Task: inverse folding
C-alpha cells in the first residue's frame, strides 16, 4: 500500500508549496508566534465579528446538558467556554489543540474565568485523535480545519469519534459570494491585515500566511463533498457575512 501523498508529496503553506511533512511544523511556528495575540488576530481578520460568528456557531449546534463535546483546534478557549455553558455542570468539554502554546493560553484564560470543572485539555493532532470510537455527542472545529495538512483524514477522525446521532460542525473562513465585495476583502486580507499584524503584534509574516491560508481552503461545496466522503450524512452549510465564513454541518446516522 503506497504512502499518503500528504506524507510524501507537497502541499500548500499559504501560497507556497512545501513538503507535506513540513507543514505541521510551519503551522506550529505560526501559532506559537501568535498565541499571545490570538484574540487580536481574530479581531483584525474579522473586524471583531468573529465573536458573533462563534456565538451563532455554538448557539445553533445540536448540544444539550450532559453531553460530551470535543472542540478541535480549540485555540484560546472561546468555543469551549460557550459549549461549557450549553452542556452544563454535568457535561464535559474536551479542548484539543496540536499547539502547546495555544492550549496553554486557552487553559489559563478559562481557569482565570473560573471555568475549571468539566473541562479537559488534550494536545492532539486532528488527523489522528487519541479518543475511542463514538466518544462524543458533538465535535466542533472553528477556524482550524484550514491549517490541517490532511483535511480528509481530519474529517474522517471527527466522524470516527462521533456517536451515532451526533453532529459535527466546522466554522471556517470560506469563499465570498458577493462579487463587488471580493476586491474589498482581498485588499483587507493582503494589504491591511499584514500591516496591522506588524503594527500590533510585530509579526507581519504570520498574518500574511493566515490570509493566504483562507484562500487555499476548500470553498463551500467542495468542503460539503469532503464531509460526505468522510462518512457524514445530511451535510449542509450556511454562509455568514456574505460567505466570509461558513458553518458546515454533518451527522453520523
Result:
Amino acid at each position: 500500500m503506497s504512502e499518503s501523498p500528504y506524507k510524501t508529496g507537497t502541499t500548500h503553506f499559504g501560497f507556497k508549496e512545501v513538503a507535506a511533512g513540513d507543514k505541521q511544523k510551519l503551522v506550529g511556528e505560526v501559532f506559537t508566534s501568535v498565541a499571545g495575540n490570538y484574540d487580536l488576530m481574530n479581531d483584525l481578520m474579522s473586524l471583531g465579528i468573529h465573536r458573533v460568528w462563534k456565538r451563532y456557531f455554538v448557539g445553533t449546534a445540536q448540544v444539550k446538558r450532559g453531553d460530551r463535546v470535543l472542540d478541535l483546534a480549540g485555540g484560546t478557549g472561546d468555543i469551549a467556554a460557550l459549549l461549557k455553558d450549553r452542556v452544563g455542570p454535568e457535561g464535559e468539554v474536551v479542548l484539543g489543540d496540536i499547539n502547546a502554546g495555544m492550549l496553554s493560553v486557552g487553559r489559563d484564560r478559562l481557569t482565570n474565568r473560573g471555568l475549571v470543572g468539566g473541562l479537559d485539555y488534550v494536545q492532539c493532532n486532528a488527523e489522528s485523535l487519541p479518543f475511542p470510537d463514538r466518544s462524543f455527542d458533538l465535535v466542533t472545529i472553528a477556524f482550524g480545519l484550514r491549517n490541517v495538512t490532511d483535511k480528509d483524514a481530519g474529517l474522517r477522525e471527527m466522524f470516527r469519534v462521533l456517536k451515532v446521532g451526533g453532529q459535527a460542525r466546522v466554522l471556517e473562513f470560506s469563499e465570498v459570494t458577493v462579487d463587488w465585495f471580493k476586491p474589498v476583502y482581498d485588499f483587507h486580507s493582503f494589504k491591511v491585515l499584514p500591516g496591522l499584524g506588524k503594527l500590533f503584534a510585530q509579526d507581519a509574516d504570520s498574518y500574511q500566511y493566515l490570509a493566504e491560508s483562507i484562500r487555499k481552503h476548500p470553498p463551500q461545496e467542495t468542503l460539503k463533498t469532503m464531509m460526505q466522503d468522510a462518512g457524514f450524512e445530511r451535510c449542509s452549510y450556511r454562509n455568514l457575512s456574505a460567505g466570509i465564513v461558513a458553518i458546515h454541518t454533518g451527522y453520523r446516522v
Strands lie at 10-13, 16-19, 68-72, 92-97, 119-123, 136-142, 162-173, 233-240, 245-251.
